[in-house]
Write a structure and sequence with these properties.
Helix content is 36%, strand content 5%. It has 80 residues and is mainly alpha-helical. A two-stranded antiparallel ribbon has the order 1-2.
């Protein structure tokens, strides 16, 4: 993860666990970015080329919740 304003590496590392998928790696990166974003006063802007990650980011923003199961495109149900 890069702070594009300062040009600094904020986080890097390996995806933990046996299941290694692109979607899982992208989602993990999104969650790391969001967790970092709440620790700083700067405005957070996340760029992704992954449609599933973009949909998950929209879901998290809309419902303030990280779902326990992957969402189908356009899903609106959530648990709190």
């Amino acid at each position: 993860m890069i702070d594009a304003t300062a040009g600094l590496v904020i986080a890097s590392g390996h995806l933990q666990g046996i299941t290694q998928t692109i979607d899982r790696a992208e989602l993990t990166s999104l969650l790391v970015a969001l967790r970092w974003g709440v620790t700083t006063d700067i405005e957070l802007c996340v760029w992704t080329d992954s449609q599933s990650t973009a949909h998950m980011a929209e879901y998290i923003l809309e419902f303030d919740n990280i779902p326990v199961r992957p969402l189908a495109f356009g899903a609106t149900s959530h648990a709190r």
